[in-house]
Amino acid sequence: MTVIGGILAGASTRGSDGQLWGLPQIPVQPSANLVVALSMFYGGMILLIRVWVNLRRHVLTMSTESSQRAESTNSQEHNTSQMQVRRQATTIGVVASVWAIPFLLGPPLGSRDVYAYAAQGRMAEVGIDVYLNGPGALGADPVLDAMDPIYLHAPVVYGPVFVTLSSLVSSLTSGPVASVLTFRLFAVIGLVVAAIGVFDIAKGLGRNPADALVLSVANPVILLHLVSGAHNEAIMLGFLIAGVALGRRARWRWLGIALCALGAVIKIPAILGVGFLAWPWVIEGLTPGKKALRLAASIVGPAIVLALAGYLTGWGWGWIGSMRSANPVDAYLSITRVLGGALHLVSGFELETILGIARPLGLIVASLIAGYLILAGRHPVPLGLGWSLLIFAIMHPTTQPWYLTWGLLLMAASSGGARNRAFVVLSAFAAVAVLPIGPQLGLVLLADTTSVVIALAMAGLVVLTLSPSLAEGVIPQRSVDPDLVSVIVPTRNEAPNIEPLVRRVGDSFADAVGGNTRIEIIFVDDSDDETAQVIQELADRSTLRDWNGPLVRLSHRTQGGRWGGLGGAVVDGFSVARGGIAIVIDGDLQHPPERIPALVSEIRSGVDLVVASRRVEGGSGGHGLTVVRDWISRWAANLSRMLFPKRVGRIADPLSGYFGIRLDRLDVSRLHPDGFKILIEVLATHAELSTLEIPFGFEDRAEGESKASFGQGLRFLSHLIDLRLRCSRPWAGSVGPQRVFPSS
Prior knowledge:
Layout: H1 2-11, H2 34-71, H3 75-105, H4 113-126, H5 160-172, H6 176-204, H7 209-216, H8 220-228, H9 233-247, H10 253-264, H11 272-283, H12 288-313, H13 318-325, H14 335-347, H15 351-376, H16 381-395, H17 405-415, H18 421-432, H19 440-448, H20 451-465, E1 481-491, H21 495-512, E2 518-525, H22 531-541, E3 551-556, H23 565-576, E4 579-584, H24 596-604, E5 609-613, H25 627-643, E6 659-662, H26 678-685, E7 691-695, H27 710-727
Parallel strand pairs: 1-2, 1-4, 2-3, 5-7
Antiparallel strand pairs: 4-6, 5-6
């Protein structure tokens, strides 16, 4: 869909006999209705992103299960686990290759830079100095017809090795289309080398290498920009990541530094790898003199590599001067361009004057951050280097979406197995932030299409992204005790509130619930203070004959097992609960335990899920919240109802953390929360549950501190989007979503 949509949008015209596609026309001339073509292009990319996210969820789940089995068994099982990781890596490589096939066979998408590479190679082949002249010096040449006009008179800003490679491609091929396919071949070779390096780095850092490959070579932004677009970043990254992988080993450090320097003579950002690899070696020197010698060697050694590259290719140091004098492209994604333009509109100052200050200032800021990361040495080399390259890409005067790949691959290697939601969002943005053939197509769209049609097409893509139908599976049967009520209390540093909560829960049941009802209170604790000890003491006392309160149980989650935040704690509580009814209540006493019997009574009358609500008649509304927190709470609830109009929309207070549910109607395997609001997860994934709300009054906190924060708010928003994408029927993949980060 993406490739066909790009072709129809003007990325290709009819090719000659034997060609898959032909050169695009300038100005751009779509061969179909542009709204239809772009809907196909972006629709296909949205589907690819969604399948990519689902592939990652599957890989993480399988990897976690394998590692847990290995931890619980012997070394032979551990070796089996390692073999499974390698098999997973092979499978991911096959999947990425299959996804890449249409991009390999179709025309360049996202930009036309590869046509400029072909023109620059043609210049070098015929003896024109590419560092003093633009491709326009070729005169009448077919390769210029498909090139972006902004590069027509721009000298080359790439290293001499890439220029020599471009000249070789030009001499080996008979036309622009063949040149593009050859550049793609080199890009694929670079990506294969980079993939091996990513796997090695992730394994060396103790990260999940299979997930690192999903985040790198199977990433839609890599497929679109480095495979289809054939940008020379792919070759640069092959040298850079191979250099980092080797340079982390002491005996191969200098080879790694040399490879990073060779990456810089493809494209200059790779030079940062030299600093990150060399500095740890410098500070390992035992004396100031030895450190000084190592510092000098770290400067002279890479300089020799750069000089040799210039000498052997015959281009000398001309490329350095070309980069210094290059005029930045007016890129619409550049932060310095956006902020400079905003200041121009507000102040009326000359735009070029503002940009003349903002652009170098952005590079200075990025350089200072990179210098700090090198000198501080607080992060592993791949992670620090990844952050530096990503910041340089964002602060660059001519930021383009494919610049983000500078840092993304190293960050994938450094954080494989983590949630990485920001990484996924950034990759998705970079994959959809371009038009099939560059920004000029946007002008054609605005000139030929009404705003109403554009808005309708965008609305259709949003629906495709957030597909409203959800998948449902059969709820597995579990053995429960119908006379037992399990009260689940997730806690974090709530020691002063534990005993009062247990006492009030016991008192409320003693007066209001008769018959054979028994109670267990399950504390799922993520505390780092004495809370766990307080709970354990109560749990020990609750087993004695003279104890007249509810049974107390403790499940203390250590740092490595605290998946999903408070919501994950509740799910772990569901998993170990033995009662027929589970009541979820906070441990801060802001949820009055005296309402538990009412929740139990309604469930026993036949309701599956009963919510203690602040937002129904008789509830406390915003009592106990500041004006700002009350407004945020209402806004978040409205957003949740908008994303899930039928499932969450039926509840007035979906952010309530106080509710009861029949455990035999709950499928725990559907629940993959992240953060505070577990009720939304339950509602969104269990449409079949009957629901009811009863009012309660939110009480003031007596002890402890609220865990709400700005970070938790961002976590909530990202989780809402993840939940919407994860559970939708048409494109999510599996019927039963898998828990990505199960507790140990």
